[in-house]
Design brief:
Blueprint lengths: L2 H12 L5 E3 L6 E2 L6 H9 L5 E3 L4 E2 L1 H11 L7 E3 L11 H16 L5 E3 L6 H13 L8 E3 L6 H21 L8 E3 L6 H15 L4 E3 L7 H11 L7 E3 L8 H10 L8 E3 L6 H12 L8 E3 L7 H13 L14 E3 L6 H12 L6 E2 L20 H6 L1 H17 L14 H6 L3 H5 L5 H11 L8 H19 L18 H20 L3 H11 L18 H11 L7 H10 L8 H15 L2
Parallel strand pairs: 1-3, 2-4, 3-5, 5-6, 6-7, 7-8, 8-9, 9-10, 10-11, 11-12, 12-13, 13-14
Helix pairs in contact: 2-3, 3-4, 4-5, 5-6, 6-7, 7-8, 8-9, 9-10, 10-11, 11-12, 17-19, 18-19, 18-20, 19-21, 20-22, 21-23
Amino acid sequence: MSINEVDDLTRILERVNISGVSFAGKELKLNTEKDAEEVANAISFCNNMEKLNLEGNTVGVEAAKVIGKALSTKPEFKIAEWNNMFSGRMKTEIPKALEYLGDGIIAAGAKLTTLILSDNAFGPIGLAGLDKFIRSPSCHSLKVLQLNNNGLGIQGAKLLSNALLDAIESSKKLGKPMALKVFVAGRNRLENDGAKLLSRVFKEMKTLEELSMPMNGIYHQGLAVLTGSLTENPNLRVLDLNDNTIGGQKGAVHVASLLPHLKHLKKLNLGDCLLKTNGALVLAEALAKGNYLLQEVYMDSNEIKASGGLALVKALCSSSADGSAGAPGSVKLLDLNGNQFGEEGIKQMQNLLGVHCDILQVNDDEGDDDDDEGEEGEEEEEGEEEEGESGEEKDESQSEKKDEEKPVKKKEPISAHMSVEQFLGSPIPSAFVSLGKERINVLVERIKTSQPKSESSDEEKENYIEDAVEILMKVSSLAGENKLGHATSKSEPSSEVLSCATALYEEVFRWAAESDKVSVLTNCLLVNMGLIKQSEDKKKKGTKWDMDGVMASLEKVIKLPFFPRSTKDALECFLPMYVPVIPSHQKSKHKLMSSFYSM
């Protein structure tokens, strides 16, 4: 054996351990059959290959064919960790690659227990490559199926649910019913229809122990069907519906009706679901009846006021197995961060818990001690989806009524004329109005006149982008709710801010596309929104924008043809990580996320 052959064998054996093969995080670009030889050889050399981890590499069609052939000799194969392994691939490549891999497993007669395909943005088309595999006996043994952040959408949910239902039916006929325990499908734009389609699977499965479907744009209509199907899964231990618009009482009642069926529930995550106080009260009533094994409860960032928080604490104490006062039973964590309890409300909750108060998390509280003000008129966010314009008009009329009850504030002085630079120096509502009827034109012209020429340096172009985005932020900030209410007349509605922001976005993205700087512009936008960090050398202190206005402007422009797909994808990726501390920002975030789901 030559030295080179020994080196090759040594390298291969480094990827092999007693139970499997791992190339995780190696960032290999496996395009051709030759590229895949190292992986295929490692599979062949592993005598008991139960697991194959290809996370963080990129696998093309020809490479997948070779790997699939190697897998066809491994009947002991059980665990496929294939998340994030199609980076940079055309969507048309992925189905065939998945088909080759699946065919290899089927040919081996392997019985898979775990299939992880998260963070592969293959969308519904990717399910076409998995369809035969999921229906095959090789998947009848699946216990864990993770499809997080795959862009499945409603169509993908339909394809997946049909394949799984067929697998359930055929496995029953073979006398070994499919018994999936863990199903993960977060960030997939499932919406109500997708949730309903997958609910058919859960209803038939009856064996789920963990269900995780965060950030899917599910409202109370989809939740009603979903929770109904979960009553058939009494062994459910983890339920994660974080960042779906469950809403107040209308959505909470469905979760509340489910809880008595889940005697083994250990973790409940309803954070960032716009439950509000009414929703919390409904859930508290259900929790008080006893989920004795519950260990972790997440209801953070839900605009819950003190009465709702107190009700939740009392419920968890009263549901303890021994019923002792102040004893939260098995609960080890109650996450109520980012709500609206106020100092007094927090003290009352801590007093109720007594020596167990360390389980309570109440950071970033945005409440005051005037608890439950306006709670009677509280309504769930999904009302906007159903009521449309009429709902918005109702909200506006209520706001106007409240404004009438408040003391009249002195109006800001409005100068007869103001230059663009004066406005940018002090971007307040009155300054925007005082720009005059041509305000949109003069602001767009300001953006145009400072545009670098094509032969300008990259540094000059990047400086321009920073300046342009700062102008965008200053104008967009004024689009926040009622921002211009005191500064404009009926003939000058605040909607003109949105029109102005739209015109500015269009001009900046037009220039960026022509200058091949869309990625730089996208990055700068994310930095100004606080979604990613800015480099230390460029960091500006004290720069804060009104995120209500910024997100309201984006809600409008992302739907327009000029807005780049890459920028939409970046916003959709980073926006869920944004954790608002101001209640109105939470509402704006949900509205913007809903716009992505509806596109």
